Fold:
Amino acid sequence: MSQKPIIENLDVILSVTGMIGGLALILLYFISPTIHLISIGISLVFACLVYLLIRNKQTNFKISEYTRTEKLSFEILFFIIFIIMIYILHSSQIRPPLYFILFSVCSALLAISIFLVDTKLGEILQIIKIYLISFTAKYSIYNIAGVVPGVDSWIHAAMNLQLAQTGNIDVLWGKEVHFPIMHIQTAITQILTDTSIKEASNFAVIVPFVILSVCIYLFVQHIFGTKTGLMAMLIINLSDFHIVWGSAPQTTSFGVIFYYLILYTLLRRYFAQSREKWTFISLVFIFTLIYTHAVSSFIFLVTLSGLGGGSIIYEKLISKKIHEIPWIADTENKRLLSTFRPKEASLLGNITNITIIFLLQHWFTSLYSKGGNSFFDVIASTLIFYLTEYAGVLNRPESFSAYSTLLSPFIERYANTLGLSTLIFFAIIGGLFWFTPGYISKLKFSFMTCITTLLLITFIFPFLGIRNIIPSRWFVFEYFLLSIMAAFSINKIVETLKREDLKKIFLSFALFILVFFMISCNISNSDSPLWLKESTISTTYTLAEVRGGETLLSFSNVLCTDNGYGPSILGFNSEPVDSFAELKEGNLKKNQTIVWRNYMLDRPIHYFTELEGYYQPVEVNKILGPEFLAKLNKNNKIYQNGEVNGYI
Structure:
């Protein structure tokens, strides 16, 4: 069979393959009820099916003229609902369901305004509105917390405070002494602003984290235009893991900042006249990223490899065949094909080689822990051990009936992943459009090989039951390209609709669904979940919970509390912290102080238990409830502040 028909129908071949793969994932769910299997499988099947239905629809590029009054009405409505949302948030101790609904409505209105934008001033206004709603998503979690939300973020905040007080980088724990950029930035900010470590973390990490999300807009604007760029910026700012790393500032957050910056500067060097300047800036950012966060720098290396590999495959297998199709050479592809010459691919390879050298040199010399082995040795040996000893298809706790019977109802678990699966749904449609002869180019093909590589690594390791690659650390980086693909897809679908009212309805519905399930899932909403309440562990502790833990620690070094609260509030430098799982019906050990939080009346704590046949302990959630508290009250209460009680 000639390669030419294959190239011309590559999108159809991939669509059919995607549907088959999606069905396979759905079937695997019935072997191991891992919710991502069925949620991603459904996204694959329906995305490929929708694409096949709309691929040949005539594109309607003509946009009706809208009066200034019509455009202004959407802006006014946005700010009215935004103000109501802020008032509700301010008057509530937790984020109520109405907050999430109004937040999603604001996002839908913002999407319509992006669709209607036609001036530079309008672009700037939409960027400001994206910033407003993005900061609201982060601060609605950050400000309600007693100090800093999250688990690892507490550890980093404690290190940053010690660094600011002593000026000695050796106070950083473990490997962090070799990845100190974020800590230095926060400590300097704390000294210069003379503020608490929480406020310093905000100024040093959260503010630049949100502001520099504009990189995705600047990146996309060069390739797909203003509206797609604004839509991608909106989507990425309201994605679950962008909210998480923006509300729990730590080294991952700082790594994301440099990752976005580097992708933008690398693109700029291709379009700028002074390319040497942008190459130098990119290398400086790469060097800084490597000394900021190990996971981020490795993900960036994989990104470079995916882009470079896609470029080579395109040149070897697709480029010549594309030129043989006369109607392929549209204006956009002519520009891109002429810009990305072979020598540019060679430069990308050189940058990749430099990155590998920088990264390996640092990983060989930095220690995983003080006095221990090198970071590279620990990572490599651990990976080899798990690959050779424990790797196996669906070797997951969900495959064991003793664990699967404890899972929450399917509908709740599916709703919890619907934001991610919606993003993947739109991204797949956008990616399939990029494989059509009218849109395919080296740059887009490289994007597709890159995101495919990243997603495969992200999901293959959990699929094999290996925890070395932690998916939660990868998604926010993958969202950069996924948001671009989804934004392109949404705008492309809008172009196929002939009626203006249908365009607005589709935009509103698509963004409402995407945003609502992103901001309300238990990843970005652990403190007041709309579902999975009985299995979601909150790490957003109130000021009373923080003060109660600190006060009780001053009375006793032997505290019994839940696993998440203990290390976060009490720190790892205290005496061993026992777990509630070790208690029997509320009975106390000698010289032991129990920390009880009102949270535990109807929200879960977690502990680890052994599964017969599984190679590592698994997390189990349990609500202690009023019966456990009644038994505790038979002991001596030595402390209470309304939210925390202490018993001996």
In short: Strands lie at 559-561, 578-579, 593-597, 605-609, 618-622, 637-640, 644-647. Confidence is low (pLDDT under 50) at residues 325-342, 572-578. The two ends are 79 Å apart (CA to CA).
